[in-house]
Amino acid sequence: MPAVHYRLEIVAPATGNTRAKTWSFSADTGNVVVIECALKKEKHRISVLTARLVDTLDAGACWPIFSALPDPAYANIPVKLYMAKPGDASQITHLVFEGKVTTLHAGSPGPSRLQVVAHDKSIDARRKRTQQSFTGKTTLQVAQAIAKQYGFTVETALGTVSLAATAFDWRPGQSDWAAI
Questions:
Q1: How does pLDDT run across 132-168, given as a tens digit for each residue?
Q2: Which residues pair with 115 in a beta bridge?
Q3: Phi-psi category of 177—alpha, beta or left, where left has phi over 0 and alpha has psi -120 to 50?
């Protein structure tokens, strides 16, 4: 089985004191040796990314990366994972995951590893409580408006709906109490 090549991009948004900065990690950039990825699927979309950045050449190399990245508890940190086509490691351009960093673990499970956990855009819907009123809209229009706020679309095709009915013949004197 050929090796899969990834590129992980983490963006620190601009603040009042700093400019926006993008970190790009791949075996080609030389800042990590290996990127191990695990993607979890929720219904029809990939919802969680766990990426381990490994630098086996320098035992403590992931600590400077960890120190440079902003804390996900205080900032929305966008992340993208790209993958190369199998057999063609020269172009890592296929977007596999886009979301926000939710956790950083330096030295997990060893000193040469940095673990990045990210969730897709639906994390925004779960992080904050909102209350809205919709008047004069159908349920589909309400669902579309809410989905649009979080960067999603609503699937409107229901497919084939079949109703099954069971015929039951009540006879005179028959009751559901008869079984008791």
A1: 888 898 888 888 888 888 777 777 776 666 656 555 5
A2: 52, 105
A3: alpha
